[in-house]
């Protein structure tokens, strides 16, 4: 066996070694990482590897299977590093010793800006080291974000002010204005990165409740660090509010409600409450934590056209594959029917794959028990459509 094959075998043994955490990416948790940072002594996935390549002073990467590993690199930089640090778990313990509870740790499916800023915060800025400065809650924050106009697609510079203690987010249309355009309660706020939908790599969607509807703000900032700092500041303010609102609940049960991504989004066609109206194409977004299925005429609409609160099966909520007898879709034939105590919602999907994904997502929500936070939603909303 040649040196290169022997070295590759050693790396693969390290990759599969038990109790090291090496079977998952050290940064985003993706399974079966295929790259190694021999300067940090960790195994990482292809996506995170792309971020590491931008910081050669901090991290040097090579493919475990595709690159050539000469004896000097393997012996000195990899095997010794991994032997000392015992793989991903030990290195993570060093660089993630004090990650604040509110700080969002990206997962494999998250957007690039979240992964990039997480990696830079860990290894470049070393924000979470045990011997670093004490990390405090972000508290108040003020700055400028580019916000999409409600009635057009133009992004304009707007001043945003977060008052964490008061539980408020404000934004102003003029830089020196004293009167905000909107005052948003942290109680009803969510933030989620929607880079593809917004069409910007730093695109953030902020939603809140207004007059019984969901208001969407679409914003971005040129700086990846700035937009992620805003995102985590909103999460910190949400955690502060939830702790006061639900003092009896442990912090672990509050974490999923700081911010959340949509479980599924996409176009479907729907008919009206009589099931005799023409099917119309709408953009749907499923918020599993608030148990809402919202629908819009267009993905970047400021307000939803309607929404469906999704209780559970014991309360009379169901979802069925296919359409009711005698009803046919317009262009799309793969149907599903949501039954609530008030009415049926009849929908069609562009193909069977989308249909099965929607069915799986909806059934997952209907089969899960209502939490105390869900009951707050249920008390003000039931299965309804505004139009």
Helix content: 25-40%
Order of helices and strands: HEEHEHHHEEEEEHEEHHEEEEEEEHH
CATH class of the largest domain, named: Mainly Alpha
Oligomer: single chain
CATH superfamily of the largest domain: Arf GTPase activating protein
Task: Identify the CATH architecture of the largest domain.
Answer: Orthogonal Bundle
**Unreliably modeled segments:** none
Short description:
29% of the residues lie in helices and 24% in strands. With 387 residues, the protein is an alpha+beta fold.
Describe the structure in your own words.
The protein is α+β, with helices and mostly antiparallel strands and 387 residues long. The protein has helices spanning 3-16, 46-52, 71-85, 88-95, 112-124, 195-198, 224-245, 251-254, 352-366, 372-380, and strands at residues 35-37, 42-44, 61-63, 141-148, 155-163, 168-172, 182-185, 190-193, 204-210, 213-220, 264-270, 280-287, 292-296, 306-309, 318-321, 334-339, 344-349. The protein has three domains: 1-124, Annexin V, domain 1 (Orthogonal Bundle); 141-253, Pleckstrin-homology domain (PH domain)/Phosphotyrosine-binding domain (PTB) (PH-domain like); 264-382, Pleckstrin-homology domain (PH domain)/Phosphotyrosine-binding domain (PTB) (PH-domain like, Roll). A hairpin with a 6-residue loop joins strand 4 (141-148) and strand 5 (155-163). The chain is globular. Keywords: Cell membrane, Cytoplasm, GTPase activation, Membrane, Metal-binding, Repeat, Zinc, Zinc-finger. GO terms for molecular function: GTPase activator activity; inositol 1,3,4,5 tetrakisphosphate binding; phosphatidylinositol bisphosphate binding; phosphatidylinositol-3,4,5-trisphosphate binding; zinc ion binding. This is Arf-GAP with dual PH domain-containing protein 2. One of its GO terms (cellular component) is plasma membrane.
């Amino acid at each position: 066996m040649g040196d290169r094959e022997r070295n590759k075998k050693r790396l693969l043994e390290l990759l599969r070694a038990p109790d090291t955490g090496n079977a998952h990416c050290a940064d985003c948790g993706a399974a079966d990482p295929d790259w190694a940072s021999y300067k940090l002594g960790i195994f990482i996935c292809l996506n995170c590897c792309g971020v590491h390549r931008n910081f050669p002073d901090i991290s040097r990467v090579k493919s475990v299977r595709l690159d050539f590993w000469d004896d000097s690199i393997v012996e000195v930089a990899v095997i010794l590093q991994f032997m000392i640090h015992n793989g991903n778990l030990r290195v993570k313990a060093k660089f993630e010793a004090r990650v604040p509870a509110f700080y969002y740790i990206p997962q494999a499916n998250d957007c690039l800006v979240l992964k990039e800023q997480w990696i830079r915060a860990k290894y470049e800025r070393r924000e979470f080291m045990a011997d670093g400065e004490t990390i405090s809650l972000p508290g108040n924050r003020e700055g400028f974000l580019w916000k999409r106009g409600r009635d057009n697609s133009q992004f304009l510079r707007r001043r945003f002010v977060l008052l964490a203690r008061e539980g408020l987010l404000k934004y102003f249309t003029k830089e020196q204005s004293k009167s905000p355009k909107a005052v948003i309660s942290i109680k009803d706020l969510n933030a989620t990165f929607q880079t593809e939908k917004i069409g910007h790599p730093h695109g953030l969607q902020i939603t809140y409740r207004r007059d019984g509807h969901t208001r969407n703000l679409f914003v971005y900032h040129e700086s990846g660090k700035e937009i992620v700092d805003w995102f985590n500041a909103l999460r910190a303010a949400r955690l502060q509010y939830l702790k006061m609102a639900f003092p009896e609940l442990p912090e672990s049960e509050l974490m999923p409600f700081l911010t959340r991504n949509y479980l599924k989004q996409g176009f479907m066609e729907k008919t009206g409450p009589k099931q005799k109206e023409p099917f119309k194409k709408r953009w749907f977004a499923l918020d599993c934590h608030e148990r809402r299925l919202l629908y819009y005429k267009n993905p970047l609409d400021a307000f939803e056209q309607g929404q469906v609160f999704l209780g559970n099966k014991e309360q009379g909520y169901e979802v069925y594959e296919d359409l009711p007898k005698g009803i046919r879709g317009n262009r799309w034939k793969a149907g599903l029917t949501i039954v609530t105590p008030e009415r049926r919602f009849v929908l069609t999907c562009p193909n069977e794959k989308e249909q099965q994904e929607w069915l799986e997502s909806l059934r997952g929500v209907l089969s899960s028990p209502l939490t105390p936070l869900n009951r707050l939603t249920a008390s003000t909303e039931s299965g309804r459509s505004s139009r």
